[in-house]
Design brief:
The chain contains seven helices and two strands, in the order αααααββαα.
């Protein structure tokens, strides 16, 4: 029912009813989650290595059935999330500009060019190269998890690289998301410019 209502709303609207500030807050939360995940991985690795250095695993091993201690953990380095942070700031400005311009209109404009720009925003959040090891999934914000079946992963390229300890890949994926988000922001700016020049402003 929810999907059907959304399709009808999109099909019948004079202007595609996207609410960009809502996506801004969602993206900020996803960004904070992957940063937190990186810190959690680093803290867990440091704790394992501390326990190895202090002989905790050896002390807990049953002498009748001895077990080998785990390998030392790879410590997560500091990753460069600056491009993603900057792209999110750009997106926030563009989203606010569009919402302000739309709110100032006396009447809803009807324009094929405006809708064409708005429809391209979602497409800009994908990449034809697809996700690592899954080129058929091209959206960079959402995808089924590689190990979770249909369970969704947000910022999947970044998140799954961190989970697997592929640090260089995580940084590359963050830059890819930033590039796509910048493209989407420029489309929203173009849509805002159309509204700012529309009658009734």
């Amino acid at each position: 029912q929810r999907a059907g209502t959304a399709v009808l709303r999109l099909a019948n609207a004079e202007v595609v009813p996207f609410h960009f500030p809502g996506l801004t807050e969602t993206l900020a939360r996803y960004r904070d989650e992957v940063k937190s995940l990186l810190n959690q991985r680093r803290d867990a690795a440091l704790e394992r290595n501390r326990q190895l250095d202090e002989g905790v695993f050896t002390a807990l091993s049953d002498p009748r059935e001895p077990t080998r201690p785990p390998a030392r953990a790879d410590i997560a380095p500091a990753l460069n999330f600056a491009p993603l942070d900057n792209a999110l700031t750009e997106w926030r400005r563009s989203a606010e500009r569009y919402e302000t311009a739309f709110a100032r209109l006396d009447r809803t404009p009807a324009g094929a060019e405006l809708n064409r720009l708005l429809r391209r925003v979602e497409r800009a959040l994908g990449d034809s190269a697809g996700l690592p090891r899954r080129p058929w999934y091209q959206h960079l914000l959402y995808a089924p998890g590689f190990y979770t079946g249909y369970g969704v992963k947000t910022l999947p390229g970044i998140r799954e690289a961190i989970e697997q300890g592929y640090w260089a890949e995580a940084e590359r994926e963050a830059a890819r998301v930033a590039t796509s988000l910048g493209k989407a922001a420029r489309l929203v700016d173009s849509a805002a410019a159309l509204l700012e020049g529309a009658p009734g402003q």
